[in-house]
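Troubleshooting entry. The earlier prediction with flavin-adenine dinucleotide gave an output that would not parse, so I re-checked the input for stray whitespace and re-submitted. Clean input:
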Amino acid sequence: MAKNTTTVSDLRQERSNPPFSINDMTEFYDGGSEATKKRKLISSLILNNPAFKWLERHYWTRDEAYSSNVQCLAEVAKILRKHKLNVDDFMHYYWLVSTIGEVVSFEMHLTTWKSALQDQGTSEQQKKWLPLVDNFKIVATYCQTELGHGTFIRGFETTATYDPKTREFILNTPTLTATKWWIGEVAKTATHALVMAQLWTQNKCYGPHLFILQVRSLEDHTPLPGITLGEMGDKFGYNSVDDGFMQLSNVRIPRDQMLMRHSKVTLDGSFIPPKNPRLTYVAITLYRCQLLMLCSNYLARASTIAVRYSAIRRQTETKPGYEPKVLDYVTQQNKLFPHIAGAYALACTGHYMIDFGKRATERIKLEDLSVLAEFHGISSGLKAFCTEMSVSGHIYNNWLASCTYEGENTVMYLQSAKYLLRCVKNPKSAPLGVSAVLHNPPGKHWDVKNMQDLEKTNTVLEAYRARAYKKVAIADKYLRELQSGGDTSYDAWNKSGIKLVDCAKAFTHYFVIKTFFNMIEKSRLGQSCHLQLHRLSILLALHGIDQNTGDFMLDNFIDFEQIKLIRVKILELFSEIRPVAVCLVDAFDIPDQTLLSVLGRYDGDVYNKLFEWAKEAPLNKTQVHSSYDKYLRNLLTSKL
Ligand SMILES: Cc1cc2nc3c(=O)[nH]c(=O)nc-3n(C[C@H](O)[C@H](O)[C@H](O)COP(=O)(O)OP(=O)(O)OC[C@H]3O[C@@H](n4cnc5c(N)ncnc54)[C@H](O)[C@@H]3O)c2cc1C
């Protein structure tokens, strides 16, 4: 079918004479030219591999989706071997390229399992197990959550009891609620699992620890004796993944399969505690930073689809014979442009935190734990804030779950709030600068008198700092009053919960805006890219104020006249961003194959392809469906 010239030329026209280099913008988004090169290389290896069958995915049954994912697992192993790629690099980009199509069935294998082993395994354990994972000699998963408990790790019921006679641990899930639940890839794929269980030795429980357990035979893939494995059933998303359950009955494993980098059990069963129990959550903290990149990626995909489609879709005759593009409506811009800005902001935050996490890990390895609490406190808030930001305004079913896994969001905010309140009590300087925010009271009133003032990043950021300062102070005061009024610390904490979540949100929002401003400032981009990013960052910040006026107007820090100025400025920014909106989403550089959207296709030939795609729908295979004979005919012809 010939291309629809109107829609194609509409999109082409949006791209004529971009006032900035799209390539430079892509490199900024990716975190540098090297990163762009790596992403493109890994994309091409995946996109050109026929096993990935991107376009066929839409109508797959559960069984087909799962089966295809296992095929992808085998292909990835081949790609890694053939091209001798670094597994961690590969995984980082592979994730970004492929998750939207739900090609995720070995996320546990190459990410969670590996990082937990690197973090908590001894060097001997790493030497033995990491090559097996990297070379796909085993397929590994991570078993933490139980049917009865997810967030409350100390409440887990699975046990690992040390038997000094045989120098083995005996693993059991003694109750129904101890059943390991929600475990990615355990139902059909995994051969090994890292199992979190309560460690018992010398008749004493020492809390949850990690154990390596082989769950399936490497000969015929059947579950090993004492291990019951199964599938959880269909979910709203991630249906290509075999999330499942696991029950254990007196399963024995050798002593050296407890991860013993921090805590240890000696041959005779004596327990040696870790130097610092907090060391055990470094891996998960790093992993949460990686998630920020995915948050950005989902938002980038959604924005790409919505902006491109809005640039070819015309609706409502506003002048005789003229229907404007939907993208020309300010209401549509209000829905979309903050999300474009959000995708760039989350990428900046992700790059910054991954980099910070790497440096922090080096310090932690040298036993300098000074950064750990701050790193954990900030990244917990970021995990919640950024996943929420990336699921707002659009829905990818599988991505909604990101608000739950890797730390449920409310619980993450509460952990972040705990850290912030601790900072209020103990001002200590730390690299991410939390104390500086919480110990310098803001001025009485926001220093904005005119539209030009709204261009100043320091001034705009000060509004966010003031809000964070006030929100943390409110939560802190409320909690202390409840405690001094006689509430137990649990009751006081519970009653303050909403204020605590609010203060963590406000602080994290400040952190994201600050990081976005800083990353633009220190980038070596040319003036034209810089200008676009500056506009996006100011838009995101002002839009955030406009969405939360109650918070920002606390104590009249921002007054109503200033809010009115903000609203005028937002409209001005919309009109500046409108001509480059398509180019800004093009710079995310998401190929059609993985965008998986007829509406968002690069060439704009939407209506032809949408119609072709609809014709392929399985219900179109027959003109008269079998249900007609079964039910409809009688209904239509019966004489009631
Ligand atoms: C798609 C998906 C994949 C997953 N994959 C894995 C996997 O591979 N391996 C694995 O081990 N787990 C996995 N999980 C499980 C995930 O880690 C848990 O769902 C998560 O930790 C939350 O636990 P929960 O579901 O038991 O919720 P709960 O902890 O029961 O939380 C329920 C509600 O109670 C609230 N709540 C809980 N505690 C508190 C508190 N202290 N204060 C205030 N409110 C509280 C929460 O905010 C939430 O609203 C997966 C989950 C999903 C959705």
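This one parsed fine. Residues 361 and 581 are 38 Å apart (CA to CA).
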